[in-house]
Amino acid sequence: MARLTYPNYSSHCGWNAMLPAREARAALEGDIRVRYAVIGAGYTGVAAAWRLAELDPTAEIVLLESGSVGEGSSARNSGFLGRRVMPKDASDDMAAKAQILSRYQAEGFDWLKDRIDAHGIDCQLKRTGYIRTAATERGRAVVEAARDIARKNAIPHEVLSRLDLERRIGTAYYTIGLHLEDNYLLQPAALIRGLADALPSQVTLHENTPVLAMRHDDKWRLETPNGVVTADKVVLATNGFITKFGYLKSRLVTIYTYAAVTAAMPDADSRWAGADADWGVLPSHRLGTTLRRIGDNRLMVRSLYSYEDELDEPRVIRALRTRFERRWPALRHVPFEYVWGGTTALTMNGSPWWGRVDEDLYASGGCNGGGIVKGTLLGKHMAEMMTGHGDQSELFASLGLANWIAPEPFRAMGFRVISAYERHRAGLEM
Ligand SMILES: Cc1cc2nc3c(=O)[nH]c(=O)nc-3n(C[C@H](O)[C@H](O)[C@H](O)COP(=O)(O)OP(=O)(O)OC[C@H]3O[C@@H](n4cnc5c(N)ncnc54)[C@H](O)[C@@H]3O)c2cc1C
């Protein structure tokens, strides 16, 4: 079997670099035999391993991570999460659907929150809400539709004018904003590191241990650089990299998206970040730009997508600087201190794919831009499914399953065409 590829980023994760150094757990050395092997120590894999330990307390569980925890996508993201799901439109049908989904979203969120509290994980979780913003007429219509949905469903919100936005987040770039109060921001590297370090004792985490090949005879054999894991059951919690194992190729697309954080700004500059101590901005178009204030004196910009491969750094920096300087022309002199890319898995219909993919082999991926809570939720439920606990039928029915995507070369061509069209529609929301 050809060697599997795994994430190999060209730069470090900025969120991780802003934290004190952490010592990675030892790589696997030698051969081991376990009941469960979970591949990938992101939110999905950690939740799956943790829940397996709760449900099968005598089982030995190994969690294998190709890199180090704090350097994967679970740390590279923007740290937005919520406890409820907004209905997609203002109809009664969507309101009813969103109510069911919100119950599951709350379950995933509360699972994380309980562990944050129980283990004192200092991930700066704050209920700041986030602001959906628009700079274009098309974007304004999206924000106004979101306002109508929030009104109809009694979701706490505030409509912000250009002046309100300028005062609160320091940029007059946007013409309208919708502050949705019931949402949270956190430091994603601190959360995933904290969770991995608090795993139950029967879960052994090996970092810097990529699975290079996998085969099934009577058991699963996972080949890593310095040892083989023999396991009864295996979970692929590698998100977009599930496809490298030969599974879900017609369901998931792996994409890269990029972020930058400024150098710490002196007081004279940081007043440009506005009066709100903590804030996060989500765009009105899916190819738009996400923004955050980080601490007293830094700003973060997340934007730009690429298909399957990471873009070279100069190109990423140029694109992110354009977006940053458009919004804060007075901060042109402020350099970026951290710039990084991260992968996630997209699906055509926005639904994830999770469940059994082969004999004693399970996979979960495709949480699109919402994997902190959804990855956690699905990891937890997958462990329940594997051990015969609970009933997943309502969750399957309400989330749906990722639908079929055309194979290569049509897929890459389709991605290029759709992203060119969407970039055009996004315009200044980028
Ligand atoms: C820039 C950016 C911003 C984002 N913003 C948000 C946000 O604000 N909120 C939100 O909820 N989501 C956001 N996301 C999406 C979110 O990060 C993902 O949905 C989430 O990380 C998925 O978690 P996961 O555990 O399923 O996968 P991952 O976090 O990708 O974890 C999978 C792990 O598997 C490991 N792996 C892969 N192959 C192998 C192998 N062969 N052997 C061993 N290990 C392997 C990888 O190293 C990785 O650590 C963002 C993503 C990016 C890139």
Automatic annotation (TrEMBL):
Its EC number is 1.-.-.-. One of its GO terms (molecular function) is oxidoreductase activity. Gene3D superfamilies: D-Amino Acid Oxidase, subunit A, domain 2 (3.30.9.10), FAD/NAD(P)-binding domain (3.50.50.60). Residues 36-385 form the FAD dependent oxidoreductase domain. It comes from the Bacteria. Signal peptide: none annotated. The keyword Oxidoreductase applies. It is an enzyme of class 1 (oxidoreductase). InterPro entries: FAD-dep_OxRdtase, FAD/NAD-bd_sf. Keywords: Oxidoreductase. This is FAD-binding oxidoreductase. It comes from Labrys neptuniae. The lineage of its organism: Bacteria, Pseudomonadati, Pseudomonadota, Alphaproteobacteria, Hyphomicrobiales.
